[in-house]
Amino acid sequence: MENITFKIYSNINSLPENWDTVAASNHFLQKPYLNVLQHTAPVNMECFFIGIFDSLELIGVSIAQYINVDHLESFGERDHCLKTYVRNFVFKNFCSHVLFLGNNMITGENSFVFEKKVPAKLISKILIDCTQSLITYFKNKKIKIHIVTYKDFYKAFTKELKEYDFHSMYEFNTQPNMIFKLEEEWKNGNDYINALTKKYRDQYKRAHKKIEGITTSELTLEEIIHHEERIYELYHYVAVNAPFNTFFLSRNHFSFFKKQCGKRFKIFGYFKNEELIGFHTILLNENTLETYFLGYDETHQKEHMLYLNMLYNMTAFGIENNFKKIIFGRTALEIKSSIGAKPIEMSGFIFHTNYFINYLMPKIFSKLEPEVSWQQRHPFK
Question: Which domains, and CATH codes, for the chain?
């Protein structure tokens, strides 16, 4: 592969015709989802789509995102402590222009895909070259990139990258990705419930009883549009109360997503006396069920254990529709482990374009990353 080149696009209408064929194994890198990013990206985000060629043949696709932290309404308001204030000050003043090679909006290996086997040495060089090209692009626009981040990689691939261009870059570990590998013998929700120990069957029964009187249904596009403001209100409540955020979705994100991805993207609404009090979303990604954003009314969440019931409902959907695993992401680790998800460590790489600050990156990053103390649960017999 001596004739490897890449091209960076800012508009999906310019992408090669066979883009989706190359990206066939990952819906998060296919045109329908990329169109969602292009048209409903957070206000502080700009997206780029990268085609990788062997001579004239497209062999791989990737994604990059620029985030302007200065335009962010909030970093997250849950944790009010000195460490949080220091973190926010540092981000505003020294890390306000961030470049991600990968997708900062979702968890998992969604940075790139190749239709043929490509050695890690070559992938490493491509990622670095794309980075430099984008830094130059922003420099020409009088924007200085402060931070560059590569995310998320499983440990085996991280080790390979460190043998090449990433060898001197700071490797960071954030909260693990909670992944639930579903057993083949489970054919329905009852099979799953019967596999639980008594303690966790009782937890399921308590949650199930709490949600009595709540109607759950998949929303059509028309219903999503009808409830758009309420959906955003519920999403925004959860997002702003998270420990840390670098973006907020646009108000029409969910309806546009549904228009683009159709049956692959589903929103389930939770109604009490015809009032929408919560929702969760999922994306059908080949044999993997990807959980996406959700929202709820805090008062009803406590009363009806909405969040836990959403996790159970997503699990039942995954089992009944023959998915092999569910990607639950890296929040609420303990409650997700209580339904069966297990923590899978993932890594990323990060560097600051200021040499002195980059030298201190190991110390700085450890001070900024929110600490999470949790106990892994083991719900099965």
Answer: 4-175+346-368 (3.40.630.30), 178-343 (3.40.630.30)
